Amino acid sequence: MKAARYYGNRDIRIEDIDAPAVEPGTVAIDVAWCGICGTDLHEYLDGPIFVPEHGHPHPISGESAPITLGHEFSGVVAELGEGVDDLQVGDHVVVEPYIIRDDVDTGPESHDYHLSPDMNFIGLGGRGGGLAERIVVKRRWVHPVSKDVPLDEAALIEPLSVAYHAVERSGVSAGQVALVGGAGPIGALTAAVLTALDVTVIVSELSELRRQRVLDAGVAAHAIDPSKVDVVEEVRRLTDGRGADVAFECTSVQPVLDTLVEALRPTGVLVIVSIWGKRAEIDLHKVVMKELDVGGTIAYVNSHPATIELVESGKIDLKPFITGKIGLDGLVEEGFDTLINRNETAVKILVSPSGEGL
Known about the structure:
This protein has helices at about 40-45, 150-155, 155-170, 185-195, 210-215, 230-240, 255-265, 285-290, 305-310, 330-340, and strands spanning about 1-10, 10-15, 25-35, 65-70, 70-80, 90-95, 100, 120, 135-140, 140-145, 175-180, 200-205, 220-225, 245-250, 265-270, 295, 320-325, 350. By secondary structure, it is of the alpha/beta class. It has two domains: about 1-155 and about 320-350, Medium-chain alcohol dehydrogenases, catalytic domain (Quinone Oxidoreductase, Chain A, domain 1, Alpha-Beta Complex), CATH 3.90.180.10; about 160-295, 3-Layer(aba) Sandwich (Rossmann fold). The strands form four sheets. Strands 3, 5, 6, 9, 10, 17 and 18 form a seven-stranded mixed beta sheet that branches. Helix 4 links the parallel strand 11 and strand 12 (about 200-205). Helix 3 crosses helix 4 (about 185-195). The protein is globular, with a radius of gyration of 20 Å. The two termini are about 20 Å apart. Its cofactor is Zn(2+). Pfam families: ADH_N, ADH_zinc_N. Belongs to the zinc-containing alcohol dehydrogenase family. It comes from Pseudoclavibacter chungangensis. Keywords: Metal-binding, Oxidoreductase, Zinc.
């Protein structure tokens, strides 16, 4: 089968490799669509980061580069391993792409398995990836999705789960006002989750295309250009002088972080969603004097079922966030290059490993 293999910094190769074999307790999935994540771009430009360097195998997967990329994907069940009796061949599914030690509690009451030692991700730390024609995954990480949800849209459920977990961590409730810093993929999807939960969303974003996209998608009530408008003053105007109840930092840009701290009301909540590759500064005096709660969030934990329900119920429409579809052979030139050099023009570019659907 064809697969995108990560060898190292700026070295991704489309190769023919053996299809994985089904083992007891696993599910074989024919991949329909796989999204290109910002993490994949970081691996390409600055890595290896999550990918175990060649000769240094990951302690759980036992694999090192080259590995197959891709962790945001949907597909169709192709084969069931022994002991898997609650799925059927032909079911539509998405994957919660974790690599976690077998002795970690990943049950429905767990709130921290995603923070366990040596955690990594399918498609980064080994165990196959969504940028291949087929993958075999442990049953625990496979989530069925209604066939009423198109498979291309289902591929966005993984990043949508990131947004859902961030919103859940914030404690925001219906009727409150949220300020989202940045309308890239995660910022836009965070806005979508907030809107689905009846939160009023204000987005701050430099790109006119991205501002218009969240407005057209109906996931933001207001979209502000911080180069032309004082975001803090505009938020205060829109909230009768109070400020935002919650804010989500989705850019890893210092001025955005500073703006969010200023725009929050006293006792507001700031959630850091983006991955920062450098040390950030925060005005702790303002945090103290406003009694702000500041927290971080990473990935998701038992978030997929509720996220899938939002999509299946129609409360979130993922179609507006799909901005491109390509084949595996165009991964770097058409996919990575666009997202690195013209990222304001795209939200989510999907890859069809088999070429079907293009």
